[in-house]
Amino acid sequence: MYDKTIAEQSRALASGEISSVELTQSYLDRIKQYDGDINSFITVTEELALKQAKAADALRTAGNANAMTGIPVAHKDLFCTEGVKTSCGSKMLDNFIAPYESTVTGKFKDAGAVMLGKTNMDEFAMGSSNENSHYGPVKNPWDKSAIPGGSSGGSAAAVSALLAAGATGTDTGGSIRQPASHCGITGLKPTYGRVSRYGMVAYASSLDQAGPMTRSAEDAAIMLNTMAGFDTRDSTCLNHEVPDYTASLNDSLEGLTIGLPKEYFTAGLDSEVEQQIRNAIAEYEKLGAKVKEVSLPNAELCIPAYYVIAPAEASSNLSRFDGVRFGYRCEDPKDLMDLYIRSRSEGFGEEVKRRIIVGTYALSAGYYDAYYRKAQQIRRLIRDDFLNAFKECDVIMGPNAPTSAFDLGSMSNDPVAMYLSDIYTLSVNLAGLPGLSVPAGMANNRPVGLQIIGQHFDEARLLNIGHCFQQATDWHQKSPALV
Amino acid sequence: MQWETVIGLEIHVQLATKTKIFSGASTAFGAAPNTQACAVDLGLPGILPVVNEEAINMAIKFGLGIDAEINKVNVFERKNYFYPDLPKGYQTTQLEKPIVGAGHVDITLTDGSTKRIRVHHAHLEEDAGKSLHEDFHGMSGIDLNRAGTPLIEIVTEPDIRNAEEAVAFAKKLHSIVTTLGICDGEMSQGSMRFDVNVSVRPKGQKELGTRTETKNLNSFKFMEAAIFKEVERQIELIEDGGTVIQETRLYNGDTGEARSMRSKEEANDYRYFPCPDLLPVIIDDSRLEKLKAEMPEMPDAKKARFITDFGLSDYDAEILSADQATAHYFEATVSVSDDAKLSANWIMGDLSKSLNQNGMSIPESPVSADMLGGLIKRIKDNTISGKIAKEVFEVLWQGECSTADEVIEKKGLKQVTDTGAIEAMIDEVLASNAQQVENYRAAPEDKRGKMIGFFVGQCMKASKGKANPGMVNQILKQKLDG
Fold first, then answer.
1. 3-state SS track over chain A
2. CA of A333: how far to CAs of A329, A341, A350, B187, in Å?
3. Closest Cβ opposite residue B50 in set A235, A312, A368
């Protein structure tokens, strides 16, 4: 049953074909068997998971179940979970056990979902390869010499390797869509403000957004039904009606206009990846959609704008990790300054320190106007580009990344090259739009995802478009062969 | 050389909200360390701030109270610096778009003149916690109870020219915020803290001198003393050929010592930027109108009314309208006594003397406005004399009785107004002071006025103060002058 989707498992649980305890145990067994190598989990909460599974079964017997009740899921290790370590992939928080529950994980708890554990990630969600984790890199289940993508690499790998029925991720610049693409699963980054950020350890507050990582668009809809909604504890969370995301999955695509940004299909895009994207779009034409070229003239500027705004916010967000109240503290500090300097130098990894320094610089007196303010102006231009493009089309499609997953270690010494690989995903965060990645083939024997970008709060439409593709193709049903 | 002092003030006012500016934790003063700090105040990973709308309302009321512009879109920013009592590593405050824009406060000086002090702006921010350096064996303790307490920081233009004006401004501000009910005004608990920017320049010079900032003065007295000291220091320094350097200074009110805390070069680069966890605060017209409707009578309006309605002097009206509690007490006293002048004298005299001696404020007074009003009523209707009234007041203060009438009744202090009884007493006094009577009668008319005082005194003494002094005077005169 572990190889089935959440929708299928939910039906099996409802019919009594399987219990949540059995289902949970099957995943726990697989984690034991395969994750030593893949390294997708930082913490496996076996005991808690079985306890929750038992409770879920009881809930179901009592007739109080919903689609997520008893479904074993994994949470990215930056959602605070009461009583369970929340490390953020960092030595800094290796000893941190939150005294409270994040809104997202709390909603899954309330729905009766089972938490298998907390997944590996790039430290503080900074990275595109999951190589920046204090707990070691995650391997791509399709090819263990490849990266799984990042920063939600652990969640993507776990779902791809059938170690969890679904997982939560967060996406600040592509951290759900890009690993979903690289691991051959479905990943949705909702509209900024759709899902509460309360209890998510912040990387870049104005960009961070949580979303589901699943094996199908239908599963993403089921998980989003649980995750989405207004939260009085998050001032940036919007009070916008939450539809039933599963209700419109089968709507017809007849008359849908797909925009293809000419800036996304240029020399930098790997030809095999491009071919898979073009094939997927041809599939949509068969389903009744029309295709139109559109333009996002400032697309390239998303990289400098993002790599100013995100580090600037991060440099401030990460100031609280100072060795004073929680987290890592250096041995025998000789005075306050020594405590700060050594706790932070020893507790943070290289990429985190790099971004803190970049962000600190960008906000400094005399540089603010040239960097931060300018980046915010570019952000507005990028958003306007999308809004203009959406006058001509309903959704925008393109790749998630210029290549399929690259080899572990191949870019770790060239941070700028790695930043450049985020070109297709960053602008969606800067504009606050929703973006979905669905499996769309293989390039160089590694999975490729199609990115579908929608208008603000158009998640239901995106999931509908993703689902129709998955009714017509079987890329999402393929799983890596594990040994 | 003639020197001119230029002063600008920055005042931190703690808003009297029940909960903190970005969390639901209580703001009550004096709790055990860290018992009023929730996950938000502790800056735990993943927590998010949510603005306390009551703090916004109070800041708006302040703006309305000083006739300032209210910025309908205002923005919280982060001021980044590391300090152990600053849990998030940044303070959430306002910089480019503060909630309250330019306004003004009019002050009255001792010579009766008034002066307008311009307010540059006022912004909302959160307070930090406290570092405790004693009792931790070489380490420091951190108390985060105060972290997240809402403050408005009020920044004046450099319109103040001396310590007297600075104190008058500070007191007026105290009066405004307490009248508005947005601050408890408890200076000793840090509810109002003053930073004083001081510079001096030769009289007539246009350019400002280099200023220093003395931080965190929490009483009018300390502020006044710190200004005197700093002005003196700067003038001496310049006259000795030195130059003032821009720096932050500390003044210790207990020792009267001042010292440099940090120079401009050591100042932080705070890397301000808009807080991405909070949306801009949008204030719509209906909210503004609602708050306008809730505005109490402000001290200036109240003072004017006290002058016209009660015939008070400018000075009395100023004092009695200065804070909400005093003004209430005064009006309540008048409503019982029906005598504004006597009520004013008693409140500013005996009552405030007793309060000061006991370190109490008006709301803590054991003699309520009702009690004082009842006492004054008995002075007015001649039941007791002013002198006996002081005795009655003392008894009321001690809490032995709950009304003046009860004291008068119990202690038999009712004034003697029976002509027969007073005549008999006077006869006795005159009989036992025959020599003085003779002297009096022998004295010329213009000397007699003074001499009669002796007989009045003897009569009052004989009646234990209860004889009506007016009647004693009158009857004495008749008998002596015959």
1. CCCCCHHHHHHHHHHCCCCHHHHHHHHHHHHHHHHHHHCCEEEECHHHHHHHHHHHHHHHHCCCCCCCCCCEEEEECCECECCEECCCCCHHHCCCECCCCCHHHHHHHHHCCEEEEEECCCHHHCCCCCCCCCCCCCCECCECCECCCCCCHHHHHHHHCCCCCEEEEEECCCCCHHHHHHHCCEEEECCCCCECCCCECCCCCCCCEEEEEECCHHHHHHHHHHHECCCCCCCCCCCCCCCCCCCCCCCCCCCCEEEEEHHHCCCCCCHHHHHHHHHHHHHHHHCCCEEEEECCCCHHHHHHHHHHHHHHHHHHHHHHCCCCCCCCCCCCCCCHHHHHHHHHHHHCCHHHHHHHHHHHHHHCCCCCHHHHHHHHHHHHHHHHHHHHHCCCCCEEEEECCCCCCCECCCCCCCHHHHHHCCCCCHHHHHHCCCEEEEEEEEECCEEEEEEEECCCCCHHHHHHHHHHHHHHCCHHHCCCCCC
2. 9, 9, 22, 37
3. A235
pLDDT-based confidence at B20, cuts 50/70/90?
A: very high
Q: Taking the mean position of all CA atoms in its chain, how far away is CA A153?
A: 8
Total Cβ atoms within 10 A of residue A52? 24
The mean per-residue pLDDT over the stretch A65-87 comes to 98
| Chain B residues in contact with A377 (beta carbon < 8 A) | none
- pLDDT of B8 reads 98
Angle between helices B299-310 and B163-180 (to 10 degrees): 90
Q: How far is the first Cα of chain A from the last one, in angstroms, to the nearest whole number? A: 19
From B358, B416, B420, B421, select the one nearest B388 (Cα to Cα). B416
What pLDDT sits at residue B463? Answer: 82
Type of residue numbered A354: R
Residue A226: what pLDDT? 98
B46/A102 Cβ within 8 A:
yes
- Chain B residues with a Cβ under 8 Å from any Cβ in chain A: 39, 42-51, 78, 80, 82, 84, 87-90, 142, 269, 271-273, 276-279
**Nearest beta carbon to residue A363 from set B45, B84, B271:** B271
Strands B73-74 and A166-171: unpaired
Long-range contacts of B222-226, Cβ-Cβ distance < 8 Å, separation of 24 or more: B222/B251, B222/B253, B223/B163, B223/B166, B223/B167, B223/B170, B223/B194, B223/B196, B224/B163, B224/B164, B224/B166, B224/B167, B225/B251, B225/B253, B225/B256, B226/B196, B226/B251, B226/B253, B226/B258
Least confident of B117-126, B313-322, B411-420: B411-420
Q: Is A68 an 8 Å CB contact of chain B?
A: no
Nearest beta carbon to residue A360 from set B47, B78, B271: B271
pTM across the whole model? 0.89
Tokens of A40: 């997708």
Q: Given a cut of 80, is residue B264 above it in pLDDT?
A: no
Q: Work out whether strand A166-171 and strand A72-76 pair parallel, antiparallel, or are unpaired.
A: parallel
**pLDDT tens column, B143-195:** 999 999 999 999 999 999 999 999 999 999 999 999 999 999 999 999 999 99
What average pLDDT does the segment B260-274 reach?
86
- For residues A457 and A191, is the Cβ–Cβ distance under 8 A? yes
**Model confidence over A437-479: pLDDT tens digits?**
999 999 999 999 999 999 999 999 999 999 999 999 999 999 9
Quote ipTM for the complex.
0.96
Q: How far apart are CA B408 and CA B415, in angstroms?
A: 9
Structure tokens, B243: 């130059």
Distance (Å) of CA A301 to CA A296, A297, A360, B276: 10, 9, 21, 21
